[in-house]
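[Q] Does anyone have a clean structure-token version of this?
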Amino acid sequence: MDIKDIIRPENRVYKKSDLLYDTTFNFCPGCGHGTIVRLIAEVVQEMGIEHEVIGISPIGCSVLLYDFFRFDVINASHGRAAAAATALKRVMPDRYIFSYQGDGDIAAIGTSETIHTCNRGENITIFFINNAIYGMTGGQMAPTTLTGMKTSTTPGGRLTQESGFPLHFTEMLASLDGTYYATRQAVHTPAAVRKAKKAIRLSLENQKLERGTSVVEFVSNCNSGWRMEPVASNQWMEEHMFPVFPLGDIKCEGKLIQRS
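[A] Here you go.
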């Protein structure tokens, strides 16, 4: 069979989004970032809003997002993406504005900006990637690092008496009146990817309806920072991170969801 017969449109099961450049991602192989970026591009294309959307990426693994997306992306200082998103949305209220932030960025240096942004109910979307570590800068402990988890700055494991407990940042944001939608997803399996894509779309649709702040957290692996093979890192994530950061909706339509 000729290769042209194999790649005919009716045989294609996946097509790369037209809103992604033909550029190799800077993310480590096996990391969840690449899947999340792909899903955002797919949703933006399916909604037909590529000329109305602006992404904001601060310092971290997402710093080069402007090299990947075929729509407007700007950089913000470390932790300041929510403040930059607020400014953009207020001067261009008809645009879809989203930030893309890691746990070290959003829940450490960016804590204040993010909390006050959600408390004001700014009509933006916050994508929050939680891999429990500073992945880009050397694998240091982050606010979401698990108790007992080894990092480059906690080689003996995180001690709560010294560093406190893992921060449940999305739950904190969900408790604020200005947060309309808060959910925690993952992208480690096909089923999880489908749920994550629905959450991304819903968060952007909420902007069109001017409902307030939407927060979509993604629990992800960091196989390089955790010093594991990709498959092993996903298994470790399921066994250790999901019990601490359970997947699912935390707040919908402005109402907190009771969890058992």
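[Q] Thanks! Anything notable?
[A] The domain at 27-137+167-256 is CATH 3.40.50.970 (Rossmann fold).
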